[in-house]
Design a protein that fits this description.
This protein is α/β, with parallel strands linked by helices. Helices cover 46% and strands 14% of the residues.
Length: 679
């Protein structure tokens, strides 16, 4: 029934369709209840009978009734045993999905909006932007009002309104009123914000924001595990990535420059994707019709089927064409309807078992009723016909009154989800780096926060500094290799000055608390590289490979990494060199280093080269600590990797606290197990 009606619809695009022009047979045939026989043909078997009334159309009086009806059907199907991921709401435009996401959130039904852009429009990101704007300007009452509403400060709405009224009465800023209030909550809030404001005078903007988030924003989100809280955490992580991009490119990182940058990109129209696509959860799927191409779902809901929504209005040209070059306007309109019909056909054929179509007479604050989309009639559905229902208002039927009983907005209890074994836990990635393994070995909770929830940790100056040095060495050796190629146009430069210029362009400014720390690190790195040049130059040995990425399949997993440097030795074997900018390790540490063992294994099995020497090169002291691995040791490293990966796969990520582990953990301030030793 779904495919037959859809085929009837698309005939209205004749004779432009390829099927007609080329004489091709493109009619879709349902294979439900069929199987492949020995003659390589599909054969109808028992069962798989298509449900009666597989295409249903309902028209409602108001948009709210349409939304509630769709969510009612989803809730009812779930309670009868359907998985949430088997149901999809397809919309013509992103904005049409908002009422549905709001209703699903209200009822506690998990959903996933795929392909959604709008990171800066998320409530949690607006909260953080308001905090930054308040730090820049304490007279910004709108931003402070949003901060006042955060649960962590405990203000009731009535209290907030009284403070706003007091500010208006005294013709003063909201901040000044709160500072002069003796009430306990207000005093606590002033103390917190004043402390962060003071730090913003010296610390980079991202560091101050992170302190606010880890101490006051994350804890409520981590208290209760839910899909919405996980979504918020991932969006905050994405927001911090944008901040880090700015900080890595600019040496001016205080609050004023940061919020000016963010305001500028928002005004320019940039609006990155939210974190929906990273979630691997059992949830209702919401997407645009364009995004649904190639996908199928047992139950599909296609709402907002009215004129100017689907089909959408024919947009005028951004740059008007001269009248003499324009095609007939009626021809342009016809082309638009043809494209919209093709898209509607795609939407209908995403449904495998049941297709729910719906429309409302009124949307938003509209005064005039909307006409039902012409595509509904083209499916062979008309008012009063089988599969068509009128619901809502005075024209409601007896069936609609039953629907209204269901429309009591009954909240879907989280326990109901758990009892049906809806698994919200994210799957562990099959591709693992050594950093992931190391984090898990330190503490499973640390791994979960970092790689599954992707909670931004405190900025790591050591990591930024190490990356700066690695990038400098890579680019310098690339320069040396190209400089050996004769060129009439190449400017001859002193290699040391070029080395330091490359460092200057490679230095990453992000993650340092203050400009002073940043400058100290920069100068320290400069001196470090000068000594490296003295020890290894001026006739540098060029690497065989530099910053070479690799992937190594092992069992059910893949180990990925990057060789800092591989040098060819006289006997045809190679030396694997791993640059380090931290404290020098002992020989014993190097001999049992799992990372070196895995890199030796990758050298053997991916590069097909014999690793006869493994070297940790500590640039701070220009000291080399060399080690070797036997075939047996490399094979053991493989089994150790698989064993750890299996543990990660089965882990419930219970923390393993300890004094040393917790002291240096970037999540020590938001973890409830901080410093508690396990018995």
């Amino acid at each position: 029934d779904i495919l037959d009606k859809s085929y009837k619809l698309i005939q209205n695009n004749n004779p432009e369709r390829l099927e007609i022009q080329e004489g091709l047979e493109k009619r879709l045939v349902s294979l439900m209840g069929h199987e492949f026989n020995e003659l390589n043909k599909w054969e109808r078997m028992g069962g798989g009978k298509e449900e009666e009334g597989s295409v249903v159309f309902q028209q409602f009086s108001k948009e709210t009734e349409e939304v509630e009806s769709v969510v009612d059907k989803i809730q009812e199907a779930f309670e009868k045993g359907r998985n949430l991921s088997e149901m999809a709401i397809l919309v013509r435009a992103n904005s049409y999905a908002t009422p549905f996401t709001d209703e699903l959130t209200f009822r506690g039904i998990p959903y996933q909006f795929l392909g959604l852009r709008g990171l800066y429009e998320r409530e949690e990101v607006k909260d953080l932007l308001s905090f930054l704007r308040f730090l820049r300007n304490q007279e910004d009452d709108a931003s402070l009002y949003r901060i006042l509403k955060l649960k962590v400060f405990g203000f009731e709405m009535e209290e907030i309104l009284l403070l706003l009224g007091e500010a208006r009465k005294k013709k003063s800023s909201l901040w000044n009123v709160i500072r002069k209030t003796d009430e306990g909550k207000a005093k606590k809030m002033v103390e917190i914000l004043s402390g962060l404001l003071e730090k913003s005078r010296e610390y980079r903007g991202g560091a101050v924001l992170y302190e606010f988030v880890k101490d006051y924003y994350y804890p409520p989100l981590l208290e209760k595990e839910s899909l919405e809280n996980e979504r918020k955490i991932l969006n905050i992580s994405a927001f911090f990535e944008k901040i880090k991009q700015f900080e890595s490119r600019s040496d001016k990182q205080d609050i004023v420059y940061l919020i000016d940058f963010l305001d500028l990109v928002i005004e320019a129209g940039e609006n990155p994707a939210t974190a929906e696509s990273e979630l691997d959860v059992e949830a209702v799927q919401i997407m645009t019709v364009h995004g649904a191409k190639g996908l199928e779902f047992p139950l599909v809901f296609l709402p907002s089927l009215v004129s100017q929504r689907f089909p959408g209005r024919n947009r005028s040209e951004t740059i008007p064409f001269p009248d003499g070059l324009k095609k007939d306007l009626s021809e342009a309109t016809k082309t638009n309807i043809t494209e919209e019909r093709r898209l509607f056909y795609v939407a209908c054929t995403r449904a495998k078992e049941k297709l729910y179509l719906s429309a409302s007479r009124y949307y938003g604050e509209a005064k005039r009723p909307k006409k039902v989309s012409q595509f509904v009639a083209e499916l062979g559905i008309s008012e009063g016909a089988e599969g068509a229902e009128r619901a809502g208002g005075a024209e409601g039927t007896e069936e609609n009154s039953k629907s209204e009983t269901l429309n009591s907005k009954q909240i879907l209890n989280t326990n109901d989800l758990n009892s049906k074994q809806v698994d919200r836990k994210r799957e562990m990635p099959k591709r693992l780096s050594y950093s992931q393994i190391s984090n898990f070995k330190d503490c499973p909770r640390k791994y979960e926060y970092s790689y599954l929830y992707k909670i931004p940790g405190e900025g790591s100056p050591a990591m930024s500094f190490g990356t700066s040095i690695h990038n400098t060495l890579k680019r310098f050796y690339d320069y040396l290799q190209t400089s050996e190629i004769p060129s009439l146009f190449k400017e001859k430069r002193d290699d040391l000055s070029m080395f330091l210029d490359i460092y200057d362009n490679s230095f990453i400014y992000s993650d340092y608390l203050t400009r002073k720390h940043q400058q100290q690190a920069y100068e320290g790195g400069k001196e470090m590289l000068k000594k490296y040049y003295e020890v290894n130059g001026p006739k540098f040995k060029l690497p065989y490979l530099s910053e070479k990425s690799f992937v190594l399949p092992m069992g059910d997993y893949v180990f990925s990494g990057r060789f800092d440097r591989v040098d060819k030795l006289d006997d045809g074997s190679v030396e694997v060199i791993d640059y380090k900018t931290g404290k020098v390790k002992t020989q014993k540490d190097a001999d049992k280093d799992l990372q070196l063992s895995l890199y030796a294994l990758a050298c053997r099995d991916v590069l097909n080269l014999k690793p006869s020497k493994l070297t940790l090169y500590f640039i701070s002291e220009n000291k080399r600590v060399e080690s070797v691995r036997s075939e047996e040791q490399m094979d053991k490293a493989k089994s150790d990797f698989i064993q750890i990966a299996d543990q990660m796969k089965e882990s419930d990520f219970e923390p393993t606290p300890g004094k040393y582990v917790c002291q240096y953990c970037p999540y020590r301030n938001i973890c409830d197990a901080k410093g508690k030793r396990k018995n």
